[in-house]
Amino acid sequence: MAIKLQPLANRVVIKPIEEEERTPSGLVLPETAKEKPQKGEVLAVGPGEWNEDGDARI
């Protein structure tokens, strides 16, 4: 069962894309050598907020 997320204000929900366990040459990367994921898939975007005049979203 999938959960429908609706972020508030100008928030975004992102699912990190995991890095490969092996390099293209076949070397296995240990957990300590990996960096935090910098790529991800956007799952949901909030409605945003109105500017002070109330005539445009920011």
Draw up the topology in text.
Blueprint: E1 12-16, E2 40-45
Antiparallel strand pairs: 1-2
Commentary on this structure:
The chain has no helices and 2 strands. It has 58 residues and is mainly β. It has a domain at 7-16 and 35-52. Strands 1-2 form a two-stranded antiparallel ribbon. The two termini are 33 Å apart.
Structural class estimated from helices and strands: mainly beta
Average pLDDT, all residues: 81
- Gross morphology: elongated
Q: What count of helical segments does DSSP give?
A: 0
The share of residues in helices is under 10%
Global Rg: 18 Å
**Main sheet: strands, sense, barrel:** 2 strands, antiparallel
β-strand amount: 15-25%
- Could you give the order of strands across the largest sheet? 1-2
**What is the rounded distance between the termini?**
33 Å
Strands, total number: 2
Order of helices and strands: EE
Low-confidence stretches: none
Brief overview:
With 58 residues, the chain is mainly β. 0% of the residues lie in helices and 19% in strands.
Give the key terms.
58 residues; mainly beta; two-stranded antiparallel ribbon
